[in-house]
Amino acid sequence: MAGELPRIKQMALLDEAGVALQKALDSEDARAAEANYRKAISAFETLIRSGIRNGKLYYNLGNVYFRLNDLSRAIVNYRRALRLMPGSSQIRENLKYARSRVHDKIEMSGKRELVRSLFFWHFDTSLRSRTIAAIACYVLIWVLLIVAVFFRWHPLRWAMTAAIVLTVALGVSCAADNYAHRHSLEGVIAAEEVTLRKGNGISYEPKYSEPLHSGTEFSVVEQRGNWYHILLNNGKTGWIQATSAEII
User: Fold this and answer.
1) Which of 109 and 48 is assigned the larger pLDDT?
2) Structural class in CATH, domain 185-247
3) What is the mean pLDDT of the chain?
4) What CATH code would you report for 7-100?
């Protein structure tokens, strides 16, 4: 990772990207528009390589890739943006639309869909928000405990029980998020077509008759050298070369 850029250089790159984007949008020449989109991408990715992690930056980068019809990198950057800005309906809508354009229509398995529905608050809020809420609930427990000791107000027991349950639930949610970010990987197929194989090598037979296409999302079960053992949303698994995908 490159060193952090001086503030003045960051602003210059943002201005450069903004000018290039506007030129691309105003251009009636497809080649000229693409060249300006590429210039904007270069500026945005230079900022990211310098260590900047910003939801709006990833969102804008996803929008540029989408305009170039690079659905895989659009989805990757929308998802990176969503990790930093989980409450953004705009990012969710753009991600949803990009997914609708992907060739492979892989529906989430019933079990995964149920878990996501039951624990929507875990998936749809940021780690920072849940951490703050957990701390607030923990403080509330002690406040209620002190009040109960001095005033013996029995109804506070129910409020205290609720605060304890919320603190535990939010704490587990935060711990699970931290563990997932450190130990699990998710990615998107970047190559135009990829054959899902039975093992980690070209010599292994294809596991399914149909290949996967650009934009298909997956979780990494295991990595061996230059190969990923992946899990699709519908529960199917197989091996792909790491070079054919981009990790979120």
Assistant:
1) 48
2) mainly beta
3) 88
4) 1.25.40.10
